[in-house]
Structures are given as C-alpha cells and as structure tokens.
Write a structure and sequence with these properties.
By secondary structure, the protein is mostly helical. The chain is built from 3 helices and no strands. The protein has helices at residues 6-31, 37-50, 58-85. It is flat. 0% of the residues are buried. The mean pLDDT is 87.
Length: 97
Amino acid sequence: LGLTTPTGIAHTSIVLFFLVNILYNYFKCVTTSNSGPSFDLVVRELARETGFEYPETEEEMARCKRDMERRILERVERRRREIRQGSYRISGEGAAA
C-alpha cells in the first residue's frame, strides 16, 4: 500500500494517530506530578469510597505499612503450606470441564 491510495492514506493516518496518542499519553504520565492538594483530595475520596482507612499521621502510616506487610507474609506462608501439601492450584488448572 502506498500513500497514493485511499486505503494507504487511511492506514497511515490510523497508525500515526495511535503513535502520537501513545507518545503523548506516555509523556503526560511521566511528567505529571502526583502531589498537591488536588491529588490529596482524589486519594482521600478514593479511600473513602473503597472503605480504606486513610492514614493521617506518621504513626497511622507506620501501622498501615506493618499491617500490609503482615498480610503479605501471611499470604506467602499460606501458599507455601498449600504447595507443600499439594493443594495449591494455579488458576484454571485442574478445573472440572
């Protein structure tokens, strides 16, 4: 296909549109600051809507991090026990047809 045919022009236009769109969005994601009052409002609203108790103080933040690390370790340990017992299945494996 060449740029002299309508199909070639349409194909090239679509490819250029996606290329420019991807590059623009990547640039905006990389250069956008995730700080400031508007970002804080969005984060707090998201926390409120999802039922997450947003940490307000350094102590609450430290407790939140400890709790998250504890939950991750518990999950890892549970999976290790399941693997040792042979009861751990990867999603989709062993499902009844």
